[in-house]
User: Which sequence fits this backbone?
């Protein structure tokens, strides 16, 4: 297991994912917070405003009238040289989509957490990953956490990634709504000094900002070749973010004693005959299922995608190479591909390998539906069976078929 | 930054003939007392119902100067056409050349005599009992727009565009400690730059139509946090303001963000080719409210955005108009005096292209919009309503409507309805002034 167990220390507190995110934000010393309430991220926002009211957080707070404005206010503060944070979920993310594209295209290093949730319609206020999948092509970096500790840690890393002069991109820290946002776990809270040291490499004065001393036009109208150059550099920056995420993992471990595996956490993959691929909290259950099946001699491993955008294609291909079959767990659907979103990416990655292997997609956990251990054990067994050449549908809807 | 020369605007004597009562000679008498011989004539021509004062108009290219054989008349830099009595030989050529009757003759000394404005303190103005004569300090207006134009020339807005004029004037008044915000629309050409070329030397942000007030919120909060009082000023159109961006505007206003938001209202989506917005006037023809056998222009009345903003309870709201620059400048100054609250200016800005009018008509349309009560000039300063340019006797609505092709299809009844609507709009503001004059 590569995920860091907590070092025994007095700074361990029991908190849910939203609180863990709030503590991370507090430690990152943002200049401005802007947010609009939407379940299930709302308690995070409330905790931050509480920190502000108690004088523990010295930040501007903007109680905006909608999500588009939440992100836009954060973008404004970052444009003027500050550090900003916002958070949302589900339809809130959709409602800020024009500002979302604006933030990435203008290379604004803002950090936004997403407590993931299903999308309307039909109406639901339940966990799912459809929302972050709907914006995956928006040019942001997307980190996906599995635990409350990882939420806190990922937000610290997010600012290092976002504000790095070689990256300068907005970053989403995504965590499953309810399953993590409202689940309490022990979380180690780092010291302010340690976080300050970790973030010292980035911050004020490291990027061009709005000022009357050295005026710049922000949001210029761009045509043709220069536009292509913008896009080219954006793509390059995304790839540098991927490299940086790998190297930051070691630095993070040195600073805080925990390593997460960079873009992918590889779990029991060394001798695995079949590989499962997933992202988010359901991977915890998947690990248990794998542990259980290994007692029966099933050699399965897991590639948990921690960085969904930019997609860790090269590392995933290495982890897939030589397996008998690969099963992909999705908590979203990709309309028109008749599969989940992660599956599409894994299938594309498989094209990088010399040898073909059976691929199978499991869709489950939509709108908060249970993904029980037995369901995932079945999924692993199905993957093993496909590896032996047994036929079956490419996409299996857990609990539906 | 080098300071540009003041524009050529001079203080001048203004004469309102309509206010001059028959039989009054106060100006001529005062001039004669002050200057030995009168240089202003009180004309009383009852046969043509004319009463008025005639004096030198301080012509830009004075015919008197050109006619003078001794070079005794010069046009001074300050604007006065001055006669040197020592060089004058009393030939009278100047008086013959002046078709305005602006030169008089000092019989006693055998020399020409003419008005020199008493060097800016004319005795005639002080003596005038009716306000017919006034001394207009146009140079004080120029001093208000005292900063260099921070925008590049040659920006691709239409010739005769009122919005461009207003935009440049706005920032000539505000100065350079400012961040300017734009959004997609005609005037964004001044903000956004093109490729790697900036169009302004101000720090500039081009936002989305949906998020300008929210971007301003973030920027101004961060600047204040850094201890800066730099102004954040938006100059955006009515589509951004009244329609797709109204939510963000309302939010920023309600929160009282310390920014100045200026909407230039050309009553439609002109940058996308003249479609109706919610501020388009009733009856107006646009590409989405065309005229045919079953439709006849926009069916709905215009949304009154400045009133909506006033009812947000913000620090300062005013309507303004490029044809009334003193009023516009004063309102900009009052808006800028608001340091810790939201200020909103709604600027009437005719689009001659979209409104179907000649290239040189924008200012005349703007002027008549005020004079017909179509567009009342008012302010709500911390809740105190005041009409800043009263229109006691409005011109007929046709004087406004006839200037624009967008209303050409309207019949007499529809025009009359527009006039009644304008009158109602004006009286609504009057009522607010009466109710909230001293909040």
Assistant:
């Amino acid at each position: 297991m590569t995920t860091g167990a907590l070092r025994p220390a007095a700074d361990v507190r029991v908190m849910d994912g939203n609180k863990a995110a709030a503590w991370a934000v507090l430690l990152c010393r943002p200049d401005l917070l802007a947010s609009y309430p939407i379940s299930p991220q709302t308690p995070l926002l409330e905790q931050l405003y509480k920190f502000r009211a108690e004088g523990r957080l010295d930040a501007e707070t903007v109680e905006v009238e909608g999500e588009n404005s939440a992100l836009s206010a954060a973008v404004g503060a970052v444009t003027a040289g500050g550090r900003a944070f916002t958070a949302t979920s589900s339809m809130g993310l959709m409602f800020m989509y024009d500002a979302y594209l604006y933030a990435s295209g203008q290379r604004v290093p803002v950090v936004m957490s997403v407590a993931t949730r299903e999308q309307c319609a039909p109406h639901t206020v339940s966990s799912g990953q459809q929302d972050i999948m709907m914006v995956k092509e928006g040019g942001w970096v997307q980190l996906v956490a599995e635990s409350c500790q990882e939420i806190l840690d990922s937000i610290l890393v997010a600012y290092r990634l976002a504000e790095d002069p070689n990256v300068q991109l907005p970053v989403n820290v995504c965590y499953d709504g309810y399953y993590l946002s409202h689940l309490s776990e022990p979380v180690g809270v780092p010291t302010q000094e340690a976080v300050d040291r970790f973030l010292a490499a980035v911050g004020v004065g490291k990027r061009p900002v709005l000022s009357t001393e050295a005026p710049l036009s922000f949001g210029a109208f761009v045509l043709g070749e220069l536009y292509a150059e913008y896009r080219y550099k954006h793509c390059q920056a995304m790839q540098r973010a991927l490299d940086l995420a790998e190297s930051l993992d070691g630095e993070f471990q040195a600073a805080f004693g925990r390593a997460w595996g960079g873009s992918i956490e590889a779990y029991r993959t060394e001798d695995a005959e079949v590989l499962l691929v997933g992202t988010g909290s359901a991977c915890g259950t998947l690990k248990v299922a794998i542990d259980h099946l290994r007692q029966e001699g099933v050699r399965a491993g897991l590639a948990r995608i921690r960085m969904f955008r930019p997609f860790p294609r090269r590392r995933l291909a290495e982890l897939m190479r030589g397996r008998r079959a690969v099963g992909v767990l999705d908590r979203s659907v990709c309309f028109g591909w008749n599969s989940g979103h992660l599956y599409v990416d894994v299938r594309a990655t498989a094209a990088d390998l010399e040898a073909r292997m059976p691929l199978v997609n499991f869709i489950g956990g939509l709108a908060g539906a249970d993904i029980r251990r037995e369901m995932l054990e079945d999924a692993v067994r199905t993957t093993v069976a496909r590896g032996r050449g047994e036929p079956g549908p490419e996409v299996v809807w857990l609990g539906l078929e | 930054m080098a300071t540009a020369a003041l524009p050529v605007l001079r203080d001048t004597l203004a004469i309102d003939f309509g206010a001059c009562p028959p039989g009054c000679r106060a100006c001529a008498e005062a001039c004669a007392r002050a200057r030995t011989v009168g240089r202003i004539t009180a004309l009383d021509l009852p046969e043509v119902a004319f009463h008025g004062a005639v004096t030198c108009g301080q012509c830009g290219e004075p015919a008197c100067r050109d006619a003078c054989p001794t070079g005794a008349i010069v046009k001074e830099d300050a604007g006065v056409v001055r006669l040197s009595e020592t060089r004058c030989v009393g030939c009278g050529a100047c008086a013959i050349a002046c078709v305005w009757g602006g030169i008089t003759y000092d019989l006693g000394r055998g020399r020409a005599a003419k008005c020199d404005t008493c060097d800016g303190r004319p005795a005639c103005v002080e003596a005038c009992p009716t306000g017919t004569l006034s001394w207009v300090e146009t140079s004080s207006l120029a001093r208000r727009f005292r900063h260099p134009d921070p925008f590049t020339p040659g920006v691709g807005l239409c010739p005769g565009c009122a919005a461009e004029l207003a935009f440049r004037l706005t920032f000539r008044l505000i100065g350079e400690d400012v961040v300017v915000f734009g959004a997609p629309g005609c005037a964004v050409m001044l903000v956004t730059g093109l490729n790697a070329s900036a169009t302004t030397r101000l720090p500039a942000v081009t936002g989305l139509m949906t998020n300008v007030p929210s971007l301003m919120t973030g920027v101004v909060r961060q600047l204040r946090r850094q201890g800066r009082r730099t102004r954040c000023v938006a100059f955006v159109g009515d589509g951004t303001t009244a329609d797709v961006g109204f939510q963000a505007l309302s939010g920023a206003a309600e929160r009282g963000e310390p920014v100045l938001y200026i909407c230039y209202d050309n009553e439609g989506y002109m940058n996308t080719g003249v479609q109706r917005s919610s501020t388009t006037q009733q009856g107006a023809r646009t590409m989405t409210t065309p005229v045919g056998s079953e439709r006849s222009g926009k069916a709905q009345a215009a949304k009154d955005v400045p009133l909506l903003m006033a009812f947000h309870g913000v620090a300062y709201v005013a309507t303004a108009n490029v044809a009334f620059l003193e009023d516009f400048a004063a309102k900009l100054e009052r808006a800028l005096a608001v340091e810790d609250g939201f200020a909103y200016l709604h600027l009437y800005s005719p689009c001659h292209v979209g409104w179907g009018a000649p290239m040189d008509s924008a200012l005349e349309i703007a002027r008549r919009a005020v004079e017909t009560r179509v567009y009342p000039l008012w302010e709500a300063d911390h809740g105190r309503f005041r009409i800043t340019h009263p229109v006691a006797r409005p011109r007929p609505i046709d004087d406004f409507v006839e200037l624009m092709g967008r209303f050409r299809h309207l019949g007499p009844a529809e025009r009359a309805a527009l006039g009644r609507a304008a009158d109602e709009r004006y009286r609504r503001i009057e009522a607010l002034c009466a109710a909230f004059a001293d909040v």
